[in-house]
Each structure stands twice: as structure tokens, then as C-alpha cells.
Amino acid sequence: MRLRGYSARTRKVYLSWMIRFWEFHARRPPAELGAKEVTEFLGDLVTRRNVSASTQNQALAAILCLYRFVLELEPPWCEDLVRAKRRPRIPVVLSRSEAGEVLAQ
User: Fold this and answer.
1) Are 63 and 75 in contact (CB under 8 A)?
2) For the chain, first and last CA: distance in Å?
């Protein structure tokens, strides 16, 4: 991962996700796992741990890194995995009086 230009922080975080994925599946060899197991892991992050979409996507990126760059595998199911979508943020709109108060300060 260092040769691919990943920062030290990214390598550390990805390694943490790789270990969590491995331990979630009772330390089974990752080469034996497939899309179903990846989806189960990501689903657990959302349902039990209530992580955000960006955290879920970070975990997925780490798992894909594990398969592609560490194990040097390119399972066909990698392309079928869907990234989590972020919820759109609703902008905070001030009323006229609130805007006037802000500008008066």
C-alpha cells in the first residue's frame, strides 16, 4: 500500500478495517469469502453500529484494497458491490428577522 502512495494514516485505518472484517467472519481466510460476506459485514456496520455512509464506504474501500492489492485477487463480485449513498443535507434557511439580526451584529 505504501508503494501505491497511501498515507500512513490511510494504511493504519484500512488495516483496522481489514482486521475487523476478518474477525467478523470468525477469522476465515478472506479468499474464501465473497460478496455475501462483505455485504453482511457492511450491513452489520449500519444496523448494529449505526455508522455513516462515508464510514461504510471507507470500510468497503479497505476491503477492496485487501482483495486487490494485498491478496492480489480480482474477484468478479468486486464490481457489483454498491457504495452507500450519503443523505442530502438540508440547508439551514434563516427567516428575514433572523437574517436581519445576523447582519446587525
Assistant:
1) no
2) 51
Q: Return the domain boundaries, the chain.
A: 8-104
Q: What is the pLDDT of residues 55-105, one digit of tens each?
A: 999 999 999 999 999 999 988 887 878 788 877 777 788 888 888 888 998
pTM above 0.85, yes or no: no
CATH architecture of 8-104: Orthogonal Bundle (1.10)
Q: Cα separation of 43 and 47, whole Å?
A: 6
Give me the residue label for grid cell 475487523.
Answer: 20
Q: How far, rounded to the nearest angstrom, does the alpha carbon of residue 63 sit from its chain's CA centroid?
A: 9
